[in-house]
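Recall the central idea of this unit: under ordinary conditions, the amino acid sequence of a chain determines the structure it adopts. In this exercise we apply that idea directly, starting from the sequence alone.
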Amino acid sequence: MPIVFITTEDGTRGLGYAWSLLGGATATRCVLRDDFAPLLIGEDALDHERLWHKLYKRLQSVGRRGLVTQAQAAVDLALWDIKGKISAFRFTSSWAAAGKAHRSMARTAGGCI
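Accordingly, the structure predicted from this sequence is:
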């Protein structure tokens, strides 16, 4: 299973993954490393919609299904992870600045606690 880590300039790290049930993990890693990584370096990780379209346009002639979309999904997950971490930090920081009580949030997987 190809795993993607994207790290922003401020050190926020996003995690994404691609599932390859019957093979193709090596090819997916190659798409991520050789085609997508150069397009993402220096970009704003919070502008995920524009980045999604940029990646899509880059490889639409190669394929719009299979391992190419799996690789794109892995990047998209990592970007959403970054967005969530930054948003959660901003939310908790603003509550702390306002003097509100801090409550820990339960982490869930698949909607189950």
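The chain has one domain: 3-97.
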